[in-house]
Amino acid sequence: MATRSGIYLELVELSGHVVATGTWNSTLRANCLYQCAHLAKPGHRCRLLQGSREITPITPLAALDLHSGTCIQVVWLSNSVADRPSRRHAFVAIKADGSVVTWGGAGCVGDSSANAPLLTEGAVQICGNECAFAAIKADGSVVTWGDAGCGGDSSAVAPLLTKGVVKVCGNDNAFAAIKADGSVVTWGDADFGGNSSAVAPLLTDGVVQVCGSHSAFAAIKADGSVVTWGDADCGGNSSAVGLLLTDGVVHVSGNEGAFAAIKADGSVVTWGYAGVGGDSSAVAPLLTEGVVQICGNECAFAAIKADGSVVTWGDADCGGNSLAVAPLLTDGVVQVCGNDNAFAAIKADGSVVTWGDADFGGNSSAVALLLTDDVVQVCGSHSAFAAIKADGSVVTWGDVDCGGDSSAVAALLTEGIVHVCGNRNAFAAIKVDGSVVTWGYAGGGGDFSAVAALLTEGVVQIC
Questions:
Q1: How many folded domains does the chain comprise?
Q2: Angle CA(112)–CA(158)–CA(454) in degrees, nearest 5?
């Protein structure tokens, strides 16, 4: 239903649960709907659909098809890909026809030519670690490439990866795949969790999420228990908090050397290397209830609570201490993103708050006037950030060599950007027409000229 000045809409989950209803001014763009969804489920990413049409944050509300009803479908997305800053030096793009394009990576992960015949169609998800990639195809099989020792060679478990894979998670040098029956298959560096034989009986069924630290994995099972393996010092051994991980866990986030788990009652359990957040005792009274999202950077964690406040712990220099911006983090925060040593938080009004290492983007004063409103997504590289605004423009800050300076492609970033992905050294952005724009260190994917002809249209996902 539309009036001269407003459009009445309902935001509805796939389950039929109504997320929100209301009348929005018809002159607005759909970022206001995204912000409403984020308030209903803080910290969770989503897509908005009207029928088969995707509504991006820059879609004008006046352009919605009111003849197909007032229902906007909310599809919640997994946050696992954003649990840790990427350490990759390459990018992979999936196109609408299911083909895969790779670039960057100094001739290693960015070169998928050995498996090119397997990547011409059917790819639906890509996961990367520091030195390799794994692609899930529509038939549930997995294709891998890159450094053999880091998981680029999955031949040892190939019979287990021919069908039924629904999700792949990577840490720095290994992969873990969840199959439709809830079992887990691992490969890559054994010391990093590529060998899960020590906990194999616990990974035969019921696994619903896997998360990686630098060199370990943590899996949540359907009964809310957690199974860990890999490097003991980086969270592979959770025996110190084992009794707290037997039930009720709903999400796990990892950083360089630790894990943090959210339980159903909103409390948090941490383990792993104490100095990077495995020990949260300093803020324990603030983590007993109400936590809805946790984001890890390399050496610290930031938790969003249901009231929109933020709690941080871990290495103070990496953002574990947020006292300098504490008054700005008491309410209204809907998303937090981390790079290696800093954090950026989006508030419900679309403004951004940053803290941590100034050289890594913890100080955003140079672009502060551009971050006061309308920001709908923030993404990090190793030491910089990129923010998408509701008008489809992009704002960057932080280390210029890692994408903090996008002036070379500024003319291409003034409108139409719908998604940005960062790796260790660069950023890649998808435009509404399916084309790609890149910037940052050329050898790390900032220069895609070698495959430019393949990235002019049809790109739907970048990893």
A1: 2
A2: 20
- List, in sequence order, every residue forming a beta bridge with 302; answer none if it has no partner: 295, 312
Average pLDDT over residues 138-166: 93
Element (H, E) at 185: strand 184-188
Structure tokens at 437: 């724009």
Q: Write out the DSSP string of 9-36.
A: EEEEETTS-EEEEEEEETTSBTHHHHHH
This prediction has a pTM of 0.84
Q: Which of 77, 101, 129 is the last residue of a domain?
A: 77
**Cα–Cα dist 397/363, whole Å:** 8
C-alpha torsion 27→32→33→37, nearest 10 = -170
Question: Could you tell me if residue 463 is inside a domain?
Answer: yes
Structural domain ending residue among the three candidates 41, 57, 77 = 77
**DSSP letter assigned to residue 267:** -
Report if residue 10 sits inside a domain. yes
Distant-in-sequence, close-in-space partners of 408: CB < 8 Å, separation ≥ 6: 439
- Report the alpha-carbon distance of residue 172 to residue 183 in Å, rounded: 21
Sheet-wide strand order for 417-422? 417-422, 426-431, 436-440
**Secondary structure percentages of the chain, helix, strand, coil, to 5:** 25, 40, 35
Task: Identify the domain containing residue 366 by its residue range.
Answer: 330-463
pLDDT, tens digit, 9 for 90 and up, residues 407-417: 999 999 999 88
Lookup: tokens for 459: 């790109």
pLDDT at residue 78 is higher than 50: no
